[in-house]
Amino acid sequence: MRKLTISPKFAIYVAGGVLCACIDIGLMQLLVLAKFNAVAAASAGFVAGLLVNFAFHAKVTFNSVTSMGTFARFMCLVAINYLITIMMVSATQHLFGMPILGKLLSLPVVAINGFFVSKLWIYK
């Protein structure tokens, strides 16, 4: 039987993702509790999380020198992940009245997408 191993880089990526998710979800939830629109709250959380995400993964996970090109590629990924997040938040808001459910369900989707795109295209 084959032993499942997790690469150190992926473990660091996940740790950074957890940090960013806490910032993202925490801010979103605070804004929702303060009666902000669910999409606006999700957007604010997303932006805060992505700024920490870029800095953490550029310097810690991938030990990369950042440039405008790196940031531009990162922003392409952000746009795609943002659309995925907002679609899932809007869908769960509409279906269940629970925007946080969409946010939580979107996290593994955007995390997996983000790791592979970052490794293969952004911070290569």
Question: In words, what does this structure look like?
Answer:
The chain is mostly helical and 124 residues long. The protein has one domain (8-122). The protein is 83% helix and 0% strand. It is built from four helices and no strands. It has helices at residues 8-33, 38-61, 68-96, 99-122. It is globular and about 40 Å long. It starts with 7 loop residues before the first helix and ends with a helix. The mean pLDDT is 91.
Largest sheet: none
- Counted by DSSP, the helix tally is 4
Summed over residues and divided by their number, the pLDDT gives a mean of: 91
Unreliable segments (pLDDT under 50, ≥5 consecutive)? none
SSE series = HHHH
Number of domains: 1
Relative helix content: over 70%
Approximately how much beta-strand content do the residues carry?
A: under 5%
Annotation keywords:
124 residues; mainly alpha; 4 helices
Topology, please?
Blueprint (H helix, E strand, L loop, with lengths): L7 H26 L4 H24 L6 H29 L2 H24 L2
Structure summarized in a few sentences:
With 124 residues, the protein is mainly α. The protein contains 4 helices and no strands.
